[in-house]
Amino acid sequence: MDNGQDTHELEAAVARLQAVRTRIVRASGEAGRDPATVQLLAVSKTFGPAAVRALAAAGQGAFGENYVQEALEKQRALADLPLVWHFIGPIQSNKTRPIVENFAWAHSVDRLKVAERLSAQRPPGLPRLHVCLEVNVSGEASKGGVAPAELPALADAVARLPALRLRGLMAIPAPAADAAAQRAAFRRVRELFDALKARGHDLDTLSMGMSADLEAAILEGATIVRVGTALFGERNYGNA
Ligand SMILES: *Cc1c(COP(=O)(O)O)cnc(C)c1O
């Protein structure tokens, strides 16, 4: 980084990363948790390789993407960096192959058919794909995610797939009116997580909380917060 533009971009990335880390540390303290138990996933959708490179130079190593084609182009441009890529967008069953070939994690598995394809297509040379099941706790029919009532059966089936490693749950609760309502939605996800563990599943990951509500999520047990806007700025979907 030797010109003024790059230096400026790096300084801005360091400042935004520091601000988000401070929020994570404060919320962890309030929850009586070790901040090291909360992983920051930087959601880079709609932002180009230069923005990811700046955040990586600032010390961020895990990045989340929603759109396969956009992600693959970015990954190619950043292949020199040791980044860990998480797929967090809706998974169409005809897009599973590029996901299993190019990502370490998939957070948004909500159907057995998709999970079976991910497992069957995982290249043998790679470690098992880390998987979270997306659960719909807001009851919005338009949203992705398995209904809570169907979650135990899906978890049992996914846990048996040989090339997947079921790690936990992911949720994107509907925006809530206040902090108490935010926490109630995240608490519901944690209760479903605890119920799966009581059922015998060895789970360690609760992927929940974004720029606007990561504190509420951490208070309810989030172990991965997925943060875009607070790290990169407002998204312009025209660029995607
Ligand atoms: C875009 C996105 C995020 C990040 O949202 P921000 O509000 O920008 O932090 C997190 N999770 C998922 C699944 C997303 O699609």
Radius of gyration: 18 Å
Helix content: 40-55%
CATH topology term = TIM Barrel
Major β-sheet annotation: 8 strands, parallel
Q: What is the CATH-assigned architecture? A: Alpha-Beta Barrel
Strand order of the largest sheet: 7-6-5-4-3-2-1-8
Helical/strand content category: alpha/beta
* Helix/strand order, N-terminal first: HEHEHEHEHEHEHEHEH
Q: Any idea how many domains?
A: 1
List ligands, each type once: pyridoxal-5'-phosphate
How is the quaternary structure best described? single chain
Mean pLDDT: 95
Distance between the termini: 25 Å
Please summarize what this structure is:
With 240 residues, the protein is α/β, with parallel strands linked by helices. The protein has helices spanning 4-31, 49-57, 68-77, 96-102, 112-121, 151-159, 179-198, 214-219, 229-232; strands at residues 39-43, 62-65, 84-87, 105-109, 129-134, 164-170, 205-207, 224-227.
